[in-house]
UniProtKB/TrEMBL annotation:
<dbReference type="GO" id="GO:0006071">
    <property type="term" value="P:glycerol metabolic process"/>
</dbReference>
<dbReference type="Pfam" id="PF04309">
    <property type="entry name" value="G3P_antiterm"/>
</dbReference>
<dbReference type="InterPro" id="IPR006699">
    <property type="entry name" value="GlpP"/>
</dbReference>
<dbReference type="GO" id="GO:0006355">
    <property type="term" value="P:regulation of DNA-templated transcription"/>
</dbReference>
<protein>
    <submittedName>
        <fullName>Transcriptional regulator</fullName>
    </submittedName>
</protein>
<dbReference type="InterPro" id="IPR013785">
    <property type="entry name" value="Aldolase_TIM"/>
</dbReference>
């Protein structure tokens, strides 16, 4: 699945009201944010997850706490492609249950970068989402410290920002602007 995301580096950040549109778009995967637990148990969600990889942002899930028991429930009754979280306990519980993990980190200064690198090494996620996406210049430094695909996300509202992030070495870009979900990425962009 990681290879599919890297081949098509577009990831939609969607909510339940536009999940179907994201799944039918040109993106390779979807990060589902601010969703209610009961939606994840409905047929609409089940049909969508069969069409495209969906990662549930557990920190933004309503109706279930972020602990080991909730991860057991998520795996048994929802079974998404993976989860997104900033929390070590959630990431580790998901990995133990065979779900792919995306660790989301927020970079605001050199200390947060150093702490994020240590946390990524400790948690060993499948991928890392770096926010905000406009800090793409840091991708090369991160890739030297961690051996994980890097997703840039946050504050993306133009096609040029997606292309610039990919040129700076990001493996994928996540964004919520629906108008960009069907853009075509030129083969000339050198994606590392």
């Amino acid at each position: 699945m990681k290879n599919n995301i890297i081949k098509n580096p577009l990831i939609a950040a969607a909510r339940s009201n536009n999940l179907s549109k994201a799944v039918e778009s040109n993106v390779s995967a979807v990060i589902l944010m601010e969703v209610k637990l009961n939606y994840l148990l409905q047929d609409e969600f089940k049909k969508n997850k069969d069409k495209k990889p969906i990662f549930i942002h557990l920190d933004l899930l309503k109706g279930l706490s972020n602990d080991v028991e909730s991860m057991k429930f998520i795996k048994e009754y929802i079974n998404p492609s993976g989860i997104v979280s900033t929390k070590s306990t959630v990431l580790n519980a998901a990995k133990k249950r065979g779900l792919m993990t995306i660790q989301r980190v927020f970079l605001i200064d050199n200390k947060s970068l150093k702490n994020s690198i240590a946390s990524i090494i400790e948690n060993d996620p499948d991928m890392v989402e770096v926010m905000p996406a406009l800090c793409g210049e840091i991708v090369d430094r991160l890739k030297k410290e961690i051996n994980r695909p890097i997703i840039l996300g946050g504050l993306i509202d133009k096609e040029e920002q997606i292309i610039e992030g990919l040129k700076q070495g990001a493996d994928a870009i996540s964004f919520s602007k629906e108008e960009l979900w069907n853009i075509k990425i030129d083969d000339e962009i050198n994606i590392s």
